[in-house]
Amino acid sequence: MRSYLSAFRLRRKMELQYRGAMLGGIICQVVFGLILIALYRALYAGKPQALPLQHVVTYVWLQQAFFRMLLASDPDLLDKIRSGSIAYDLCRPLNLYGFYYARIMAQKITGSLMRAVPMLLFASLLPQGWGISLPASLPALLLSLLALMLGLLCVSALENITMAFTMRTLDPRGIQAMLNLLMMTLSGNILPLTLFPDSWQKVITLLPYAQLLDAPIRLYTGDVPVGEAWRILLIQAVWIAVLIALGVWLWNRHQKRIVLQGG
Amino acid sequence: MKTVRLYLRSMKMLMKCQLEYPFSFFLQTLAQLVMEGGEMMAVILIIDRFDRVNQWEAGDLFFFFGIMSVTFYLTECFGRGITGNFPYLIRTGQLDTILLRPRGVLTQVLCSAVDPRRITCIAVGTVSMVIGCNLARVQWTVLKVLAMAEAVLLGAVLILALFVIEAIFCIYSVKSVELVNALSYGGRSACEYPIDIYPRPLRILFTAIAPFALVLHVPAAYILGKPLYGWPEWTAFVCPLAGAVFFGLIYLAFQKAMRFYRSTGS
User: Fold this and answer.
1) ipTM entry
2) Residue of B nearest to A50 (CA)
3) Which of B53, B76, B118, B166 to probe the A interface (max A CBs under 10 A)?
């Protein structure tokens, strides 16, 4: 366990290196958030919906703040497989699945926390109707944090499955892009899932993509009352178990067949 | 003329390169379709839920979305060298080789990459425009066709210019600057919808600073027969020129920045 923790810590330090890029990223994300909110405000002015505008605004800010958690990107493994230096990783007395899982987690947590904290501060300073609102209640906040952690486990497992495919195809850009895009749409980044047609929502909220951000945000805003939180947590737990099992199976299978490039 | 031939030849070569890995190429093209399809689905769902924004009805909104994505992805397809690779060229010092050759820097960079995967995005945009025209019952005239051609062409020039800004920043700071994305990609996101639904600061940003509204929205509104801000007809032909002016200014800044350029290579 300790070795996985240190893989996590090393990766976290790497992520912390690029602070300048981070600032640019934050400003960019804030502008995107403001544009989306302006759009939804204009839409709501024409035809108000059952869902309060304030919930949509909060949804947008939380999505923008934790945007980094959605992106699938660990270019290192790709390079290692192409250059053949994956051989060194294979020599480690570690389970490779766990090793990469820890790295993905570190990257997602550090990358997004560094951005989320300043962004949420900024969003909370904006006037009513533009800024983020407070959580529905204290238990709602705690539950949404728990759901965020579980969602993160879920998405990291999903990403590790893509990594397994990387081993096979050598050029994973296609499949990675596909996963990224499914993620952007089905996680509510492009359009809040709460604004999808109600009949679609019943299905979409069950998919693993919705677990990362949509589920915690619904708990935060109180769209899902605290009493029904167990349903979300249960769905998340099931997905984590299924995706990790599938991932481990694929990694073990592909690891045996891996062809080392280079000499 | 020679430059155009050079560009076409490079494009042909680069296309061949891309097709060397057909399966990966196919998947990536498909991914682009999913991406743009997702964006269009968002528009469809928004229209389904909200029906309209101010005076803009469903057809108008599809048309605005369509003209934006066609323009943006045509630029990303044929201007890939500038929209994608430039910061990389600077970081790795590969720009030096370009400086040695007897052609302009931007020309060569334009010749250095093409991105045929975007074809599916352009297709989605076209479909959206056709749907929009049908829903809004657009009566096409020669003038309207001309206005659209001008808008798309100068829109592409404007978007290229926005990416050249990133290149300029990159010359000074070596690392690519995500900040500029707020203008280019942010402009795309915002201006998929008509500009007059936004509050004043955003309107100013995308009219006076990055003139998406002048280049794309004024002609689009003219084609739809609902002039933006009630401006007269001729503005639909004059306003897009802002794109060319913008490119000219950025080009001058770029020339200046190139004099500052110091190689990172060894």
Assistant:
1) 0.85
2) B49
3) B53
